Amino acid sequence: MYHKSFIDSLTFEYVNAFDVKRACQLESEGFPPEEAFTLERFTYIQNAAPTLFLGAYLSDSYSTSFNKLYRRRGVALCMLKEYIKRLKNESQNRDMNGKYERIALICHEHLIPFYQKAGFILKGESEIIYGNEKWFDFVLEL
User: Fold this and answer.
1) Is 105 strand, coil or helix?
2) Which of 53, 81, 89, 123 would bridge with 15, disulfide CB 3.0–4.6 Å?
3) Which UniProt keywords are given for this protein, alphabetically ordered (predicted)?
């Protein structure tokens, strides 16, 4: 495990319009081309649902989220837990029609233990076809 001070030095912020291009670059470094979102898709997400687009930032750099140098240090799990916490908090401040009930996602087989560690429940193999690998459905009830 990496020294706690590294994780403590991170801040989690919603990705703003200025950072969308860099987030897209980091996405393309971390995913196969057939799975990576385009800049247009990232821009749409940032405009349509800015509170669902979270990034991890170091205090001295605003371009480290998912950067290869920062992988396998616990950043993704910390960011996912922060994302869950923010959705729960935001949901508490909404009326019944606007509350988030659950988080649903798909992942590849090698990431199953990661999402289980974060509290997600594996529902089984997904029917979604995206890229070349199988996907698995997960749900976390809020």
Assistant:
1) strand
2) 53
3) Acyltransferase, Transferase
